[in-house]
């Protein structure tokens, strides 16, 4: 994006946001039924998508990140942006050459025999070119797009204005989404991804972690000519996992590839540490020898020790059909809101786990996904912010695996891989047997006697605390908004007093403006302090 287009870009984004706000206000004012609201969100999603493709750049990346927040955003909106591809036209070679020589402070010929001036890939943040070093090694050169920092500053400044306006004036549905948290999340992810030195460190971390894994290939990185804007890596050829003809020529079967992928990604999802959050078919290839090649470590996230233990317990509980234990793990992980009834959730899990894959042949898959999304949004369930990218990683890899093996084959592959992983972690079959015994009727009877009298009091305490916190939070929130509106009215009075030269009105309005502004700051401070007591969905 050229500098003169900054103003046009900002106006375009603000105009789109204003139209969305006006539509929401109109539907809220007319008290439209739920069906009409769903149609509105579909329409908003279409307009949003068109604007993203028109402006390109960073907005495509923001759209992709929003598309994985199905737990917070309406399904009608998500359905329009869930297949966005981060593929934009490449920059002029002269601009790329200027960036490379500016970062290296040397002419390109000092390091390279040759660089293909046609981009191999071009996304919103970076572009990839193929080159040959002086020693004859082929490399992939990932270069930050020209003016990307300017685009980031412009887009986030514009989004900040939109978030501020929506927070004070837009009647979003109660519990719908906390726009400030979403904005902070988007900003952190994109600022991290735009710094290639962080990606280089992550690549080196993964290379060390999987150095003894013979079935995996991670490209070497040339640290001496890599910077925060340029990342130079070993060139590795591979076959896409969606290339049917290419896969047919391999010596390994599709089931073996699925087995390797599960072996490589399951530990990332279950063990504490860093995991690859964007394993789409452009970032996960297979070599002619059948080895998995992993690229692009710009989007990663971490799992804490505590969360890893709870996830392990959740999977073991589901495999052993110990749904009471599974619900407990979901609560500890923060997936269930305080008002969730454990018994109801146990029955729901039992029904979901009893679903048989062969039933899929008798129903519309898309209809089933829509029903599941509606069910999840209707239940007291949320996805904590820290798990959004874990969900993205799992769902993306699931799509790849489904293209390689059937449901039955995947189930047969997954269970032994998981049990083998358990043994490597020091958990033998006795621990698995213990979880299985807990799910049996005898244990449930004994367990219910000890927990029966504790459960009502626990639920009552949780409910009472949450109600108190929510009540106090709402009071501060309302006072802050009232102070803002009063300050705005006071400013209007000051302007009127100056215009009419009426000193009493001017002085009274100025006093109201000062006092209400002070009140706005005080209640804003109290609200910020009170946030730490609120449930994550409210933050």
From TrEMBL:
Keywords from the UniProt entry: Kinase, Membrane, Transferase, Transmembrane, Transmembrane helix, Ubiquinone
InterPro entries referenced in this protein's UniProt entry, alphabetically: ABC1_dom (IPR004147), Kinase-like_dom_sf (IPR011009), Prot_kinase_dom (IPR000719), UbiB_kinase (IPR050154)
Protein kinase domain boundaries: 114-443
TM regions (residue ranges): 12-29, 505-525
GO MF annotations in UniProt: ATP binding; protein kinase activity
Family: Belongs to the protein kinase superfamily. ADCK protein kinase family.
Identification of the protein by name: Predicted unusual protein kinase regulating ubiquinone biosynthesis, AarF/ABC1/UbiB family
Lineage of producing organism: Bacteria, Bacillati, Bacillota, Bacilli, Bacillales
């Amino acid at each position: 994006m050229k500098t003169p287009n900054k103003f046009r870009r900002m106006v375009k984004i603000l105009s789109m946001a204003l139209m969305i706000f006006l539509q929401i206000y109109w539907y809220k004012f007319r008290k439209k039924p739920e069906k009409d609201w769903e149609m509105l969100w579909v329409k908003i999603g279409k307009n949003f998508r068109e604007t993203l493709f028109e402006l390109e750049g960073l907005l495509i990346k923001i759209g992709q990140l929003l598309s994985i927040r199905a737990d917070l955003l309406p399904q009608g909106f998500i359905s329009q942006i869930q297949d966005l591809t981060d593929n934009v036209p490449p920059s002029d070679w002269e601009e790329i050459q200027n960036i490379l020589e500016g970062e290296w402070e040397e002419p390109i010929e000092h390091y390279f025999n040759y660089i293909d001036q046609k981009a191999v890939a071009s996304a919103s943040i970076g572009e990839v070119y193929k080159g040959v070093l002086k020693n004859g090694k082929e490399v992939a050169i990932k270069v930050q797009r020209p003016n990307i920092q300017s685009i980031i500053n412009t887009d986030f400044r514009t989004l900040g204005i939109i978030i501020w306006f929506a927070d004070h004036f837009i009647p979003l549905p109660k519990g719908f989404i906390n726009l400030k948290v979403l904005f902070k999340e988007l900003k952190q992810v994109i600022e991290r991804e735009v710094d290639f030195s962080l990606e280089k460190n992550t690549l080196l971390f993964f290379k060390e972690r999987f150095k003894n894994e013979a079935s995996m290939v991670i490209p070497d990185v040339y640290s001496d000519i890599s910077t925060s804007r340029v990342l130079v890596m070993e060139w590795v050829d591979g076959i896409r996992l969606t290339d049917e003809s290419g896969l047919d020529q391999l010596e390994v079967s599709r089931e073996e590839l699925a087995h390797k992928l599960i072996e490589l990604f399951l530990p990332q999802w279950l063990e504490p540490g860093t995991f690859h959050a964007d394993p789409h078919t452009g970032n996960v290839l297979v070599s002619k020898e059948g080895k998995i090649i992993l690229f692009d470590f710009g989007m990663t996230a971490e799992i804490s020790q505590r969360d890893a233990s709870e996830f392990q317990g959740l999977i073991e509980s589901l495999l052993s059909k110990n749904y009471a234990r599974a619900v407990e793990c979901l609560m500890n992980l923060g997936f269930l809101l305080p008002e969730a009834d454990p018994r109801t959730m146990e029955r729901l899990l039992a029904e979901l786990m009893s679903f048989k894959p062969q039933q899929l042949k008798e129903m519309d898959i898309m209809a089933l996904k829509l029903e599941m999304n509606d069910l999840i949004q209707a239940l007291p369930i949320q996805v904590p912010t820290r798990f959004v990218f874990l969900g993205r990683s799992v769902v993306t890899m699931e799509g790849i695996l489904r293209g390689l093996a059937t449901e039955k084959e995947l189930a047969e592959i997954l269970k032994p891989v998981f049990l083998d992983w358990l043994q490597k972690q020091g958990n033998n079959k006795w621990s698995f047997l213990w979880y299985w015994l807990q799910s049996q009727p005898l244990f449930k009877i004994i367990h219910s006697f000890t927990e029966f009298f504790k459960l009502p009091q626990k639920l009552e305490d949780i409910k009472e605390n949450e109600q108190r916190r929510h009540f106090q939070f709402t009071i501060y929130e309302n006072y802050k908004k009232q102070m803002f509106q009063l300050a705005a009215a006071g400013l209007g009075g000051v302007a009127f007093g100056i215009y009419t030269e009426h000193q009493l009105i001017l002085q009274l309005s100025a006093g109201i403006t000062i006092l209400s502004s002070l009140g706005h700051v005080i209640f804003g401070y109290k609200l910020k302090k009170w946030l730490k007591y609120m449930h994550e969905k409210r933050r």
